[in-house]
Amino acid sequence: MFTRILIANRGEIALRIIRTCKRLGIETAVVYSQADKDAVYLKLADRAICIGPPPAKQSYLAMNNIVAAAEIADVDAIHPGYGFLSEDDHFAEVCRSCKIAFIGPRTEAIAKLGDKIAAKNLARSAGVPTVPGSDGAVENEDLALELAEGFGYPVLLKAAAGGGGRGMRVSHNPISLRSNFQQARAEAEAAFGDGTLYLEKFIESMRHIEVQIIADEHGNLLQLGERDCTVQRRNQKLIEESPSSAIDKRTRYDIQIAAIKIMKAAKYTNAGTVEFIYDADAGKFYFMEVNTRLQVEHPVTECVTGLDLVEEQIRVASGEKLRWWQKEINTRLASGGHAIECRINAEDPRRNFAPTPGKIGLYCAPAGPLIRMDTHIYSGYQVPPYYDSMLGKLIVAGADRIEAIRRMRHSLDELVLDGIPTTKPLLREIFGHAKFVAGNYDTNFLATEMGLS
Ligand code: ADP
Ligand code: ADP
Ligand code: MG
């Protein structure tokens, strides 16, 4: 087992990882940018090392600074959290070549699955259905138009290197596809340094369903059930829950098997998530992508399985074997009840979800049985403008979905968080919305039911 771990991240996930390390008796070193010098979790870590000025490129994305910090702190492993360098195969390789364990999958698996086109091909060769679309990269507009003619509009242009809901454009006809092509390419180039695009049929009404996987380095792999992340804004998740209310037993089983097939084909290790599109009208599911890291919404899976996913990540990265059989996990899932998470973001939903950095006034978290608040904020905390707008996550559980929703409403009512606009009022509204409560919605929910996009 590791003696000391460096946390190469910030915010709620940095605090979340420190907590597990403490419980396991592992020392922690955490990096921070000048903008995060007042973060409370810096006090909880055994060591905090400044890695540069506020812009992420000069701090949380500055590989050399992070590796230097790891050397100074003399750690034996690095946990990358999510976002930033977590899905950067080069970073994983640099860590490993410095004899520092990277708490994540093998470098080759990150590289292969991080390329969404390569991942789709892998899924296909593993016998898992994929969304109708181009076989590989779409080199030019003419090819895009020809393909779109073949499987029909609307179509979606996606960046092979995309992530965070960015680099996607819907086209309803050839004219918009032509103009979207150049824009999407330029956007992908600017955002990901790679303008490679591919084309998919745009599924107009879908549920986002994903399967959590954990695998060790000895060939053992477990699926930890699914999460439904259908409530999204701008293709980014806002609410996540487990299990999904949209699928029956048979579909659940089929999706789980599909996820296992893909990850086995990739010889996957550590924690990862296989994302699917579920077309409820057609009763069909399609592989979408793999996220080769811990996900923001991992706590809902922790609630229904009783596992600590960060602990499992650390254990398998240090070479330990998984300690459960799939059967035991299935038993836990069957009796695990229902868990829901919502993201409390410093954003103004009425202003197109524009970030609202600033000073938080009073903050007081809800508490009680089956209520968990994962956040690094506190009263008077200054939200920096440089990073993701997520302030934290409220996670609740219940015997069933209705009980969990009810608990979520009360918890949101109890949550005191003022000073800046946040997603809290919108979330409260959603949890009271008849269609959400009935489980009758798709990824257009915020647009069609709340007038938000
Ligand atoms: P999930 O919720 O499935 O874990 P998200 O897509 O919300 O994944 O991404 C997790 C975090 O990483 C978010 O903070 C998001 O802004 C960030 N992120 C993910 N991919 C990218 C990317 N390619 N570029 C910038 N930020 C990203
Ligand atoms: P990212 O890497 O940014 O997470 P994904 O490929 O996972 O990108 O897609 C993010 C979201 O975009 C999905 O959850 C879904 O809402 C939407 N989306 C992606 N592909 C399609 C599609 N073919 N049809 C309709 N919606 C899609
Ligand atoms: Mg995704």
Strand order of the largest sheet: 13-12-9-10-11-14-21-19
**What low-confidence regions span 5 or more consecutive residues with pLDDT below 50?**
none
CATH fold-level name of the largest domain: D-amino Acid Aminotransferase, Chain A, domain 1
Name the structural class: alpha+beta
| Mean pLDDT figure | 97
Total helical segments: 16
CATH class of the largest domain: Alpha Beta
Gyration radius (Cα, Å) is: 21 Å
The backbone outline, from C-alpha atoms, is globular
At the fourth level of CATH, the homologous superfamily of the largest domain is ATP-grasp fold, B domain
CATH architectural designation of the largest domain = 2-Layer Sandwich
Give a quick precis of the structure:
By secondary structure, the chain is α+β, with helices and mostly antiparallel strands. The chain has three domains: 4-103, Rossmann fold (3-Layer(aba) Sandwich), CATH 3.40.50.20; 132-201, Dna Ligase, domain 1, CATH 3.30.1490; 206-450, D-amino Acid Aminotransferase, Chain A, domain 1 (2-Layer Sandwich). The protein has 16 helices and 22 strands.
Question: What attributes does this structure have?
Answer:
Dna Ligase, domain 1; 26% strand; D-amino Acid Aminotransferase, Chain A, domain 1; Rossmann fold; five-stranded parallel sheet; alpha+beta; single chain; binds magnesium ion; eight-stranded antiparallel sheet; binds adenosine-5'-diphosphate; 22 strands; 453 residues
Structural commentary:
The chain is of the alpha+beta class. The chain has 3 domains: 100 residues, Rossmann fold, CATH 3.40.50; 70 residues, Dna Ligase, domain 1, CATH 3.30.1490.20; 245 residues, ATP-grasp fold, B domain (D-amino Acid Aminotransferase, Chain A, domain 1, 2-Layer Sandwich), CATH 3.30.470.20. The protein contains 16 helices and 22 strands. The strands form 6 sheets. The protein has an 8-stranded antiparallel beta sheet, with helices on both faces. Strands 3-2-1-4-5 form a 5-stranded parallel beta sheet, with helices on both faces. Strands 7-6-8 form a 3-stranded antiparallel beta sheet, covered by helices on one side. Helix 4 runs antiparallel to helix 5. The longest helix is centred in the middle third of the chain and has 19 residues. Bound molecules: adenosine-5'-diphosphate (2 copies) and magnesium ion. The site of magnesium ion has 2 residues, from loops.
